[in-house]
């Protein structure tokens, strides 16, 4: 890294990225090369897979989304990177399907005084760029209520329940409602120059963060540039049939006006073969209905951001971070935000 690039990296804007799952880790993987001052605020509502097992057996917050983010920001040796992502294969007994990175975080949770401290310790071990913060330390569950009035509790149950009901999600909430936020997360939002929500699962990765006491309010009150990264495809069992304006509307209905300034959407075509494959899973490219989004008070920016290397229709980490930082620099120079 030459001195000019290093200076820009060390003195880059304070960026807060909010979400969970693979979408947030994709964003972080690109942003870590553009600013040192990076904070990821991550949902802790997951109750499925290996994270769900550790949550039930050890009474700890689910580590999976946190681990994904730390992997994305890690500056560790290649062997350590492999260890973090290693999953025990079928036939491994109770460890089948479990991630070694989750087990490390679970062990640190046993050593440390709190889950937040465990995350800090693992961040030090991995020499990550920036910080990863669980949005709350409360033991929360996610409840979804559907348009027909039925409801289901448990993030891992929502997709299957939605398909069985054959109707859309009306709203989600945390149980218990309005848990206390991680104070460090609120401080990071207050100090941010740029706040990014998504990409990621709308109802199970992005919105749960906004249901934690004070998080949505802090974002709305912030003078930072606030960007929502729209997904490329709808998600089977969660957002099938929804347009991008309906995604934005759901975000605002679960928070308040002023949550976002810009909605960034992909405008590059999705490979026709991928479209056919996704159609079999009841998913499709998201319709960018610009006029309806702007009627909600949110500016729309369309840029080609799809990865050409992935076997799935996903964002390019490099292109995503490039577009995000370009938009920040444009607004910073013209003092629009």
Task: Describe, in plain words, how this protein is organized in 3D.
46% of the residues are buried. Helix 2 (21-31) crosses helix 15, helix 4 runs parallel beside helix 7 (115-126) and helix 6 (100-111) crosses helix 7 (115-126). Strand 8, helix 12 and strand 9 (262-266) form a beta-alpha-beta unit. With 337 residues, the chain is α/β, with parallel strands linked by helices. It is built from 15 helices and ten strands.
- Structural class, by secondary structure, is alpha/beta
- Please indicate the percent range of residues in DSSP E strands (runs of 2 or more): 5-15%
Mean pLDDT: 94
Distance between the termini: 31 Å
Number of strands: 10
Rg result: 19 Å
The helix fraction, in percent, is 40-55%
Categorize the overall geometry.
globular
The number of helical runs is: 15
Ranges with pLDDT <50 over ≥5 residues?
none
What is the helix/strand order?
A: HEHEHHHHHEEEHEHEHHEHEHHEH
Order of adjacent strands in the largest pleated sheet: 3-2-1-7-8-9-10
Specify the biggest β-sheet.
Answer: 7 strands, parallel
């Amino acid at each position: 890294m030459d001195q000019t690039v290093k200076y820009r990296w060390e003195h880059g804007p304070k960026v807060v990225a909010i979400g969970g799952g693979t979408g947030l880790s994709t964003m972080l993987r690109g942003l870590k090369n553009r600013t040192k001052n990076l904070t990821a605020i991550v949902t802790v509502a997951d109750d499925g897979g290996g994270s769900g097992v550790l949550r039930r057996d050890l009474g700890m917050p689910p580590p999976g989304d946190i681990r994904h983010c730390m992997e994305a920001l890690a500056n560790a040796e290649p062997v350590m990177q492999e260890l973090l992502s290693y999953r025990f294969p079928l036939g491994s007994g109770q460890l089948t399907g479990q991630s070694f990175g989750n087990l490390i975080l679970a062990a640190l949770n046993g050593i440390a005084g709190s889950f937040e401290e465990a995350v800090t310790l693992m961040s030090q071990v991995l020499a990550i760029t920036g910080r990863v913060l669980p949005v709350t330390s409360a033991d929360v569950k996610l409840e979804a209520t559907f348009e027909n009035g039925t409801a289901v509790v448990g993030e891992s149950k929502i997709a299957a329940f939605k398909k069985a009901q054959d109707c859309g999600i009306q709203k989600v909430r945390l149980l218990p409602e309005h848990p206390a936020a991680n104070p460090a997360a609120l401080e990071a939002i207050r100090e941010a120059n740029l706040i990014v929500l998504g990409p990621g699962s709308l109802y199970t990765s992005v919105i749960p963060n906004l249901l934690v006491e004070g998080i949505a309010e802090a974002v709305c009150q912030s003078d930072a540039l606030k960007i929502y990264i729209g997904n490329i495809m709808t998600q089977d069992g969660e957002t099938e049939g929804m347009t991008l304006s309906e995604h934005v509307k759901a975000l605002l209905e679960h928070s308040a006006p002023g949550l976002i300034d810009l909605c960034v959407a992909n405008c590059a075509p999705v490979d026709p073969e991928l479209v056919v494959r996704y159609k079999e899973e009841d998913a499709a490219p998201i319709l960018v209905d610009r006029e309806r989004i702007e009627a909600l008070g949110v500016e729309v920016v369309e840029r080609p951001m799809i990865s050409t290397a992935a076997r799935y229709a996903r964002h390019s980490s490099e292109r995503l971070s490039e577009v995000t930082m370009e938009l920040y620099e444009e607004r910073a120079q013209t003092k629009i935000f």
